[in-house]
Every structure is written in structure tokens, then in C-alpha cells.
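Blackboard transcription, Thursday session:
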Amino acid sequence: MNIDYSQEAPAIAGRLSLSEIEELVARPLDTKPDRKYFIALSISGTLLLIGAVCLAFSFYYGIGLWGNNQPVGWAVPIVNFVFWVGIGHAGTLISAILFLLRQKWRTGIARFAEAMTIFAVMCAGIFPIIHTGRPWLAGYLLPYPNQHSLWVNFTSPLLWDVFAVSTYFTVSLVFWYIGLIPDFATLRDRTTSKIKKTIYSIFSLGWRHSSRHWQHYEKAYMLLAGFATPLVLSVHTIVSFDFAVSILPGWHTTIFPPYFVAGAIFSGFAMVVTVLVFVRKIFNLENIITMDHLEKMNKVILATGMMVGYAYGMEFFIAWYSGVQAEQFVFINRAFGPYAWAYWIMVSCNVIFPQLFWFRKFRRSIPVMMVIVILVNVGMWFERFVITITSLHRDFLPSSWAYYKPTIFDMGILLGSFGLFFTLVILFTKSLPVVSISEVKAVAEGAQPTHHGGHHE
Amino acid sequence: MNKKLFGIAAIFKSPDDIIQAAKKTAEAGYKKFDTHSPYPVHGMERAMKLKPSKLGFITLVFGLTGAGLALLLMYWTMSVDYPMIIGGKPFFALPAFIPVTFEVTVLLATLSTVIGMITFFFRFPENDHPLHDTEYMKKVSRDHFGLVIEASDKNFDESKVRDFLKSLSPISIEEIYFSEKETFPVLEPKFVTFLIAVALVTSGVTYFALNKLLYMQPFTWMMEQQKLNPQQKSSLFADGFGMRTPVQGTVARGFLPYPYMGQTNPTEVLQNPYLPTKENLKLGEQKYLTFCSPCHGNFGDGDSRLRGQFPNPPSLHSTRAREFSDGMIYHIITNGQNIMPSYASQITREERWAIVNYIRVLQRAKNAKSSDLQVVNKETGNNASN
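(Written on the board underneath:)
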């Protein structure tokens, strides 16, 4: 355990030259996909198809096919929505917040995490729309002058959600695309295929690596990072308002915004680690996405996991301290009622197992980290399940108490959202550079001028 | 070769070299030069003597515009166009408007920054720049650093620039020429056919989606409900009617039976139970204008708007009408008089009394006495007598 902490570890390992970095990242784009790729794609495609079939049934027969019913009117669709929005948050955190904090290690993972943000928000966006039952009328969510003379309710958290999630998606997409422009130019200049060259030329917009452009580009990147940072915090805050602004015991809590944001970063990092462990292995990117990067992400998982654990404890404390009977009932019912199994899955996956990351050996062990991050993903899905369902299933009128069970269609749509996510991820790995070529080049050894500006006059 | 020269380019190996080269080029007085590198090289703005980027101003202006527009839209929709009390909040509930204001600010600031940068600062898309498809671009795109001095610089002299670049000890020097302009005839039959096809398909699909698809199942399943629509036959009742006649003696709300119905000159009438409050008079005015004014005129002068198609009624300002008790006017509205029909089934009880109160207002206004005139204090707007 002799580590020198006085010096910053290099952002990329193995002393790669600039052209080696480019070769490494661009290789998946130049080679034909192999058999494994198609096997992976067919698995995720099957999941996607299952989801599509379940959705088609839900559209045709109506959402009565789902388990939602009084008193649990918000159920798995909303759980899935919050889950996927949360997954997205890691990408923006890595690309924007770590950029502002000058964390060089982010360069290797930022592109992938941003892509995951976009795909996760796409998955999330499905759920509120299908939950309305008539998704083809989703245009009513926007404030536009209409013949009914009606406007949307700007004081409703559900409407804030529409603005927050759509802004988040747009800004993430733009941020991602801005990062891709120099890489498209690099790919354009190295490719020999005429079709690829045309496509890359269109998307690179004619970028020519000019320093006069880089100057504005860096400024724009900084501004966008500056906006994305409060944006990412606002998105999950507003998602938590969906619950916290109501007056339902178990939801009506001021701790929700920070608690949801911490949970979102927690689950998002877990998902990023889950996917990156495979990506770095399959595409030989071990030198760019190094073990140090994974370890740092595991530290973030440990820290945010503790924050989530603190929130779990504080909710109970406040329920007792408030002296509100209904509040106390909800929390005791949460931990020891009919959904105790879900509650304890949540606590053990999110708070207990990540504690293993206190040990350096476990933080740097691929098998241990795989198990823990998958448990975290499961635990975070159950966290939203516990929040949504346990607060609803026993309402103020004992005669209407019920035990909610998701139906096969609910689960099919959840599987479908995973299918959509992984299909997009798999297609992404073969069609775009999974690591930002220009950013990684910029942090390679010897890529920046020495402090004295080279030869002295 | 009569190609036009764009500039002379030099390739350098290391970031230190390019910084030095850029510094010397700027010091030599060249203005139209540029350096190219596969990633932003630190300290290049200073070496090239570039002014700080002004991009932030676009962000600032559009960000503030976004905030202002969002607040204005919410203020107008929620407080002016369709004011509605929601959750006990005021019409302009600023705390509840903050999230949307923030999101719209971020959205507009981000999009304007990116679009402004790409179109205004970069003049993109520009895929026909002379530097594209040169060996030079291939190298700087990968792992080299380049410097171009453009021929449009006012100090440009081909041999001098070449010597100057050589003095910077680059790896190689290359001349860059403008490429020949490519032309794309817009009215090529192929292209026109393509455009027409796109227009036809787009309009066809739109028409189908909006006018046909949305009227098919399952989109119309809200229309198919277990209920009787007007004029539909009921299979539940023997008479086939969906609606039942009410039980004998049922009285509809606001339509209490009137005891003096059918009497031309009732010996006694009802007392007016309503005070002429502001709300009551407003209601009376509205109902008067709807039901009474077509014949009696907007101010009760008997100036019918019906242009003789129906006999004009007498003025409501005659001594006889003014001396009617409230109950008598109510009786006339309820029972009708001469050719005036009964309004009992069209105007509720309360509304009839409100009309009576309003007629009293009209009568007072049209026949004002000098004692009705009061001096109004100009400054406070209050009556001086108050």
C-alpha cells in the first residue's frame, strides 16, 4: 500500500502517443462488428421487442392492464421514470461538474456517460407519456394557444417536470454533440470510405481544428458546463417535487430534493461502472478507462450511498420528531409492513453492501465491483418503489387499503426500457467514438506545452 | 497552374514548437494567420494575441431573455388570460414560477450559445474551405500542429512568407490553394422530382394522421362508452326513452311556483326579497340586456331593436311604470302582460328580482332629481357629502 498521493496520477495510462489514442478509440468504428456484437444486440433487441409488445397491448386495451388501481394510482411507471432519470444524472455530473472541478480523469469516461444520460432520459421520457393513457395527446403538455383557450398549470410540479426533463434532454444532447464535433472532424480526415466521409463531413460542420475556433469552443464548453451543473441538480429536485409538493405522509418531506439528487448520482455512477467495465474490456480501452477511474467512481458511489443512507435514517427521525401520527405510521409500515421485503432490499443494496468500498482492494476488484454496482442498481429501483408504493397503499381510509402487485405488462415494459437503453448503448459503441478523442489527446503526456513555453529565446 | 493561392502552411511536431511559431508570427505583424491542433493547446490565445472570446455576451442576453419571456408568459396566462385560483396561491405565484423560469433560461442560454457559436463565430457549416482534404488537415487532425499564413494578409509575399516559415524550423511546408467552385444546379429534374415526392409524402402522411388515424380505434375509444347519447333509443325502458319524466310536483331549482300566475291585475303582489347590491345589479343588468332589451331598449326607453317586426312596448320611464311596486314589475315579468309573454321558464326567480332592481336603477338614472346630483371631490374621488 505504498501510494504516492503527493502527485496526480496520469489521466491515461501506458504512455500512449496521440496517434495511438486515436487508433484505439476509432478501431471499433473501422472494423466490422463480430458475432458477439450481434448476440448482444439480439438480446437487447428481444427485450426491446417485449416492451414494444406490452406497450402495444397497453395502448389497445388501455392501461387497465397494469397493476395501478386505487389507492396505488402511481406505481411502477413512475418508479421507472424516476429510476431512469436518476441513471442519467451521472453523465452530466461527469461531463459538467467534474469539468468545472478540473478533474482530468473525467475525459476518458465523459463521452460514454453523456451518451448514457441521453439514452436514460429517452427511456425515462416514455413513462410519464404512456402513463397518461393516451400518449398521442402528449402535445397538450405544452403551453400553446389552443381553441379551448386553456393553458397548462404552471404551478404544478408535473408541469415543471415537463420543462425540466425536456430541457435536460435538449441540453445534454447539445452538450454531447458539441463534444463530438472535433471527433467527427478527426474521423472525417482519417476515413477512406466515401460514405463515411460524407456523413462525418455533415456532422463535423466543416470543423478544421483552428485555434481561433478552439478559443470560442472552450468558452462555449465552459458556459455549457456552467449551465448543465445547476440544471442537473434542478432536474432531480423537480422530480422529487412531484412527490414532496403533495401533502401525502411519506412524500411531503423537505429532505427529498437533496436526497433524490444524491440517489440519482449514486444510481447513475453504478450504471456507468456496470457498462464501462464491459466496454473497456471489449474495446481494449484499459489504458484510457483505467482502474484508477473505476476506483474514483467507486468512491463517489460510496459517498453518495452514505448520503442516501443518511436520508433513510433522517426520514425516520423526522417522522418521530414531527409527532404526526400519520407520518409515523407510514414509516413504521414502510419498514415492517407488507412491503418490508422491498424496504430491506433497498437498505441492504444501497447502504450496507457499498460499505465494502471502504477497502481499496474491493474498489479495485472488477468482480466485487460488478456485484456491488448491480446490487446498487437493484436497490435504487427498489428505493423508488418503496417511496411510491408504501406511501400510497395504506391511505387514510383503512377500508381502501390494498396490496399492489405489478402485472406482467408492467414488468414487460420495464424490461423493454432496459432493452431500449442497451440497444442504444450497443449501437452507440459501434457508430460513434466512445471516448472523446480530442479531450483524451489533450490530457496525454506531453500534449501540452511545458510551463516555460518550450525553447527560450 | 492558375489556381488561386489560399496560404502557406507549415507543420510542427510538438506543442512547444507551435506556441513559439505562433508567437513569432504574431510578432512579425501577420494578422491573417491561424494555427491548427488536434486539441486546444494551452496558452495559444496569448501566443496568437487573440482577444478574449465574446461568446458570453450572447449567452447573457439570451439567458435573460429566456427568464423574462418565461415569467411574462406565466404571468399573462395565469394572471391575465385565464386567472384561476390553484391551491390557494396568488395568481402571480412567483415561487411556483421559479422552476420553469430557470429551465427556460438554461434552455435559451444553451441553445443560443451553441447556435451563435456555430453560425456567427465559426460561420459553419463550411465544408468547402480550402484547408479541407489537404495533407495538412490530415496531419493536424491527428497528432501534428500547423500554422497557416493566409494570402489575403496585407503583408503577404509568397517568397518572404516561405522564408519566414522556414526560419521557424517546421517539419514540412505546404501551399494551400482554393479548390474550384463546385456548382449544384437546383432545377435538375431529378432534384425537382425528389422535392415533389417529399412534399406529397409529407402532406399525405400528415393528412392521414390528423384526419383519419385519430378517428380510428383505439384512438377513439373514449367515444365508445356505455351511455346514451341524445336521440338514442334506450333498451332499458319500455317507452324507449333514455330520460325519465320527473315525479309529479317536482320543482326545479330556482323555479318556485308563482302564486299569482294568470292574474291580469293582481290585488296583491310579492315583496322584493333582494337588496340592490352591486353583484345583484350586475346580474340584473346582464339579464336585462339579454332578455328585456331587444324590445324595451338598452335603457328602457321602449326603442325596440326589432325594427317594427314586433310592436314597440311603452317606455319604462312613464309615470305609471315608475309607480309600479317591485312586486308588480316582477309579476309582469313572470306572468307577461298584453303581448309580452311570460318569462317564468327562462329566467330564474333571483334573476327576475335582479332585473327589477336594475329597472329601478334605470328609472332613477333617466329621471334624476337635482338632489341626486352630488359634488364629487376631484382629489379623492369621494362624494363631498360622505
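Lecturer's comment: The first helix of chain A runs from residue 18 to 30.
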